[in-house]
Amino acid sequence: MSPTVYNQRNIRLTINGITLLLASVLLMWIPYLQFAGYVMEVAALILLITGRTAFSPKHSRSVLISLWCFVMGMILSAVVIYSLYSQLYAIEVPAIRSSAMRSLVSSFFILLALDIVAGAVAGLTFVFSVQELMAENGRNLLWIAYGAWLLFGGYLAVFQAGQVFFGGLGGAVGVTVAGFAYNHAFVLIPPSMPYEFALLLLGVPFALFAWAYLMVRRSLTTLRAPGATPPMPGGQF
Description:
The chain is an all-alpha fold. The protein is 76% helix and 0% strand. It starts with a helix and ends in a 16-residue tail after the last helix.
């Protein structure tokens, strides 16, 4: 395979990967379609990793960092889910209910903080996967989107944690466990609001990410013409 054909192939893979990223962020904030969004994100990372060599070494490293962020975010999320639900399950066992409740109360804010960190790390995937293909304006848009992800994602994590405790422990115990996080943090989202509706808040950062991906995808399509050369570090958008 000639270098030109090889580069065109990898450029095409990168464009397809960005297209899947665009589709994934449009699905992740929609109730009941989150899983499809995550599947598309994984497929997008595979394509971006495969096609990364058509561009600068900085882009290649950045894509690998995005993969690391995704994996670490998923691992941290799995730890939180396993720890939380194993403790909720232990509460249902009469012999250890009292000790299990004390353990849950003491670890609540640790698990909540870890959940927010997991989301923050995983969110970097959306930035590092394409930032080296973009100029300063495009990178700024990515980081603004990431800031919105931290804001609304962290708020949603607190909301979800409160609902888990209220649903799993009952109102009185839930108030004791969640404390400030549940009773005082919900200024914008009332506790009675369904989680699926609260999830729509993530539409703000995902819309910004989608805008950035659309712009970089348009700029990369010009590279598919015969004889075109990959962009220099810094991108076109």
